Amino acid sequence: VNVAVLPRRPRVKLVSWGASTDHKVIAIRLTLYASVFFVLSGAMALVMRTELARPGMQVVSHDGYNQLFTMHGSGMFYLVLTPLALALGVYLVPLQVGAPAIAWPRLALSGDVMQILGGLAMFSGFFTVHGAAKDGWTAFYPLSAEQHSPGTGMDLWILGVFVVALGQMLLAACILWTALKLRAPDMTLLRMPVLSWAQVVTTLMVLTAFPALLLAMALLFADRHLGPVFDSSGGPVAYQQLFWFYGHPVVYVTFFPFVAAALEVLAVFGSRKVFGYEGVVLSLLMFAGLSMAVWAHHMFTTGQVTNQYFSLTSTALIVPAGLEYFALVGTMFGARIRFTTAYLFAVGFVLLFLLGGLSGIVVASPPLDYHVHDSFFVVAHFHYTLFAGSLFAFFAGLYYWWPKVTGRLLREGLGKLHFALMFAGTNLTFAPMFVLGYDGMPRRVADYSPDAGFTGWNEVSTLGSYVIGLAMLTFAWNVWTSWRKPVPAGDDPWGGHTLEWWTSSPPPRLNFDRPLPPIRSFAPVYDARRKSA
Amino acid sequence: VTRAAVPVLAWAAFLTLLTAVLLVWTPGAELQWGPLAAAAAITWVVGAVLLMRRRGSPPLVPERSYGTLVAAIGLAAVCGGAVLGLWFTLVGCGLVLLGLAAVRRERPH
Predict the structure, then answer these.
(1) Is the bond preceding residue A83 a cis peptide, omega within 30 degrees?
(2) CB-based contact B15 A292, cutoff 8 Å
(3) Which residues of B touch A180 (CB under 8 A)?
(4) More reliable by pLDDT, A268 or A364
(5) Chain A residue nearest residue B27, CA to CA
(6) What is the C-alpha separation between A248 and A379, in angstroms, rounded?
(7) Residue A6 has pLDDT above 60, yes or no
(8) What's this model's pTM, rounded to 2 decimal places?
(9) Which positions in chain B touch A118 (Cβ < 8 Å)?
(10) Helix (H) or strand (E) holding A419
(11) Contact criterion met (CB below 8 Å) for A71 and A41
(12) SS3 at position A330
């Protein structure tokens, strides 16, 4: 009897994989969850842009639009950018400081589980009677009060944000302790790589700013179900104080790790060390400290905050930001550059984040902010910092560390196409918003008058968003190709500088399969390579 | 005393300075300087803990911790009870206890 015997396919042991305490697996899980939520939140952005291309309501209802912009913003902040920033730390900090594992791995595993559960809770609001939350990612009071936003969808949103933020605090504690207490013997503080330093300040911000969000969510929930909390003359502003005390630092939480990633990419592909290392460390600490004291610039127009103080601290951010830009440009200056995809994304970050930063000067100044507040100008500003800034730097890091994580190379040709489409799409989408906002188009509206003169720029912006969608499909195709037809990367395909390149790709369970090299600077592998050469 | 606490304490001092300036500027606005003061206080505490603990190796834990997985799901369920009802909180409490019991029995390989 002829019997065809099929080879047994290895089963993916999902529960076993989900219970892993290996920091590398935890980081990969965080990245996968963030990717799923990125696709969902990105798809919502495309629907919104389609709706805004023309005056009138063509695609969704007003209520549907409110749900879309709320869940788009919430998804991107709470479930995509913050987890990605922490995932970088969870994966790389133990490797970069020469530790065999992350501190408190069980705590890190708990934080990871909370990301997916909190995210599912937030998005499950779409399946409730009143739909998902519709008050923006800020959930300003009294819009978010029970009488204005009834239904379980809003409650699930509050629950999801609470659980996600709690998990992020657990992850931050693990990263901070690893960087400061589990370093290899010769890894002094001023020999820690820039990315690890960025994670130190990022996690400090998470641990000190995120409790305000937990408190805001708990009080908002209590207000909706137990009795008025914010329902007084100063109540709504009190909610905003609590929210923005989290809401502004989180912008930097989703920035520092990525700027550090870009800096490392510029150094490695420029074949030189990071320029002005000590200055970068100092600027990170100063930047993080100042950014904890600028939150009320989001509330200039309330008339309830000390505009002078918060304008001063907001403008003072130029000093550390300037130091970081000096380091970025200095690292590129005189370098022997290899124009890889990672390098292109890092340069794209430097250029585009500059636009985001410069437009920040406008909103840091109360008289100018009064004109553009709650307009599309603000939407353009924060998309230039967070999308054009953080996401470009994230992709720089992704193309750079992908071989370390997977042991495979992504295709450079597809990568460069991805970059070109992203660069064009980003500018087409967000640059017109500066004009629209300055001319008075308010944000968070689904419709506008055909006589307002907004149609042309909105069409350009919508076209740009489709180009970004195409760029993401190119990236997905690149990942698929790398998965189906792997090209082995080797342990150190780029000539990396830091300790994660001193081990196999992907690294073994306890990170290092050979003794560490002498650690005499923040780039020990670079030093070892030069010495052997 | 270890140097690991130095950046954290420096950061705490910076936050305290920023709080002090805000306090002098608007002494009556507790809602403005309060959160910043709380953040400075948290940072001082983290710095103090770091100051007292030595550098070391990570503790040995099993490669997979099903107990932690169950406990974390339970903790999320406890929070979820606020929306879904007391029964969900009770289920969550049960899962937390079950998970913690499993964690106690776990041994590193």
Answers:
(1) no
(2) yes
(3) 4-5, 7-8, 50
(4) A268
(5) A306
(6) 15
(7) no
(8) 0.94
(9) 76
(10) helix A412-438
(11) yes
(12) helix
